Amino acid sequence: KQVGSMGGNCGSAQPEADNRPLAVRYADAGLMQPFSMDYKNNFEKEIYYAINMLRTNPQSFVRQAQATVYRGLVKKSRAVELAAECLQSMAPTQVLKFDDSCNAAVRANNEAICQAEQQEPVEGGNLAKFKEQAGDGREPLGVEYSFYGYQ
User: Which domain of life is it from (predicted)?
Assistant: First the structure.
């Protein structure tokens, strides 16, 4: 066995993490670029890149997930270990595309959360906002998850 840099034993050497900018890695992966009118800022574009890279190559995110433990971002939790196991076993799925109605609902919900200035924001709200904006009794299908901090 090899000895890892943290002093532990490793079954094999770990490949170096890809530290190139996300946009470069996304382009090299050959994934579909969003149109400039699909996002309002660079943060939205990078989230889009990250989601689609995760969907098409989940195993590539294992090292980043494990690095959160070493940086002290997650403590007293098996969450990262479980996430890494899940990522390693996931099969690739199709890429996501921006949807104008969904984006508008999420932006409206985020604006409402920011305006409320609550210590602990209310979870969810994106699907409710989407239903409100869709009108005509249309019922959105989906699941959402809110996470506001690490413990």
Answer: Eukaryota
Say if residue 84 is in the same domain as residue 120.
no
Same-domain status, 67 and 130: no
Backbone angles phi, psi at 7, to 5 degrees: 90, -5
Residues 50/44/106/117 CA torsion (nearest 10 deg) = 110
- Residue 21 sits in the same domain as residue 83: yes
* DSSP E strand stretches across the chain: 2-3, 9-10
Bridging pattern class, strands 2-3 and 9-10: antiparallel
Q: What is the pLDDT of residue 23?
A: 92
Tell me if 61 sits within 8 A of 54, measured CB to CB. Answer: yes
Domain residues for 117? 100-134
pLDDT digits (tens, 9 = 90+) for 54-109: 999 999 888 888 877 766 667 777 888 888 899 999 999 999 988 888 889 988 98
Does 73 lie in the same domain as 39? yes
- Asked whether residue 6 is assigned to any structural domain, the reply reads no
Instruction: Give Rg (Cα) of the chain.
Output: 19
Indicate whether 55 belongs to any domain.
Answer: yes
